[in-house]
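Sample entry follows:

_____
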Amino acid sequence: MKGSLFSLPINSYLLILILLLLVIFTGCTSREEVLWVYRPMISIGDDLFGETGHTKQKLSAEWELVGITKQEVSQTEPMVKGKSYYIANDLPVGTEIYGSEEEPEVIYAKPNDTFIKYELMEE
């Protein structure tokens, strides 16, 4: 039987197998597998503060409680802005936020016994 699939050389079978596996594995990748994780942020109004990685056990007297987080959003989604309350993407609702008139470009979040520093981000 000339021209049948059974008369192909072994190299052709390997090539067909490799191409078939490539098609299968390429088709199995999901778009949802690639997630972006945004840095920890807090927003209020149009201001966006990014976590610096610096922490303190205590704040000086100039720092006062200015609010609490009222919404938590996913760290894999763009940050929500434009609201009149504090929104965080890495802190639970109810986290205390501290500010100072001397340093309006800095806030501190207190999710537990530690204060985490956030700085105003340039856009």
Q: What stands out?
A: Strands lie at 41-45, 47-56, 64-72, 83-88, 96-99, 106-110, 115-120. The two ends are 70 Å apart (CA to CA).
